[in-house]
Amino acid sequence: MSELVEEHVDTTSVIARMTEFHSGLRLGHMLSTVAELGVADHLVDGPLPVDELAARTGTHADSLYRVLRALASKGVFTEVSRREFGLTPLADTLRSDAERSMRDVFRLQGKPFMRDAYGAIEHTVRTGEPAFEHVNGASLFEYLAARPEMTALFSRAMGNGARQVQRAAVAAYDFSGIRLLVDVGGAHGHLIAMVLDRYPDLRAVLFDQPHVVSGAGEFLDGTGHRSRIEVVGGDYFESVPAGGDAYVLSHVFHQLSDEEGLVVLRNIREAMVPGGKLLIVDPILPEGDVPHPGKFMDITMMALTRGRDRTEQELRDLLAGAGLRLVETVALSAPSSIAVVTTGASA
Ligand SMILES: C[S@@+](CC[C@H](N)C(=O)[O-])C[C@H]1O[C@@H](n2cnc3c(N)ncnc32)[C@H](O)[C@@H]1O
């Protein structure tokens, strides 16, 4: 830091900001706790005294009160009268049935297998190995595959977060002219459903791990587009369904290391029709100090997987290694962008 800048640093505000960051750790745990307890769901019909909330959630009233008081000081819940709490716009996102519910995101974060992985980031920084594997003895997807209940929670949490990005992607990108869209790692098919809603001539393949797509039936049946969707279970490290003129990797590419990513990119390039396109939906990180939510998502990738979020140059370099090139990037109003990719070397 130059002397000139140092001279103007306000020590009080520096300490206040660092203290705020320090509180963040507890804030995350408190949000996970009230999400797990379903507190917001109990307040849908109006504020309740904390004793009543404690009775309904089977909790210790005074401890619940102290958590809600702290959260209310951040605008999550409000103490409408002494020891009586109601919803605020922030607390509303913790309702199970909120349109953009974050309840499962916070519940998932509070599960020991996730929470302890974030707590072991130091291990990753020391060794380069994913904290998740160090703590849980298996990779994230191996771990989930053996636990159907956690797979369901993970899928719902990812789905809720992803929906906002998917909506933005479908609004921002023109899918007309595409005949067959293959969603690689498409989970239960929410993105596909949104695209098919808008483009009646398009057909789609939903591709994901067998135990994931086997749970997609109920959602797909409700889309009204079932006859235009083929469901395929498999492993993208082996191959992906052939014949698509467009492929999507939505929040999948960043969970892959460079080596793994190259394998998947090559499999997609082999599978796509000549001149086909690949749409990679992930954050694209700005260089330097520029704030961007993707820089925190990258830490999630680092702790949980061997993947990473990438700058545009890092993406270009990887694509080149698979005989692909970046055509354009489409910024979304959400943290992610669409990288539009096609075959051939960069100009
Ligand atoms: C973070 S989720 C993204 C889901 C969805 N595309 C979205 O945008 O919400 C990553 C997906 O990759 C899938 N996946 C992980 N390993 C896979 C593999 N080897 N082959 C196919 N899909 C895989 C997971 O099952 C999961 O559905």
What do you see in this structure?
By secondary structure, the chain is an alpha/beta fold. The chain has 2 domains: 2-99, Orthogonal Bundle (Arc Repressor Mutant, subunit A); 147-343, Vaccinia Virus protein VP39 (Rossmann fold), CATH 3.40.50.150. It is 50% helix and 16% strand. The protein contains 18 helices and 12 strands. The chain has a 7-stranded mixed sheet, with helices on both faces. Strand 9, helix 17 and strand 10 form a beta-alpha-beta unit. Helix 4 packs across helix 5 and helix 7 crosses helix 12. It is globular, with a radius of gyration of 22 Å. The two termini are 40 Å apart. The model has no long low-confidence stretch (mean pLDDT 93). The structure holds S-adenosylmethionine.
Number of alpha- plus pi-helical segments: 18
CATH level 1 name of the largest domain: Alpha Beta
How many separate structural domains? Answer: 2
Which H/E pattern describes the elements? HHHEHHEEHHHHHHHEHEHHEEHEEHEHEE
Question: Which distinct ligands sit in these coordinates?
Answer: S-adenosylmethionine
CATH architecture of the largest domain: 3-Layer(aba) Sandwich
Give the structural class.
alpha/beta
Basic shape: globular
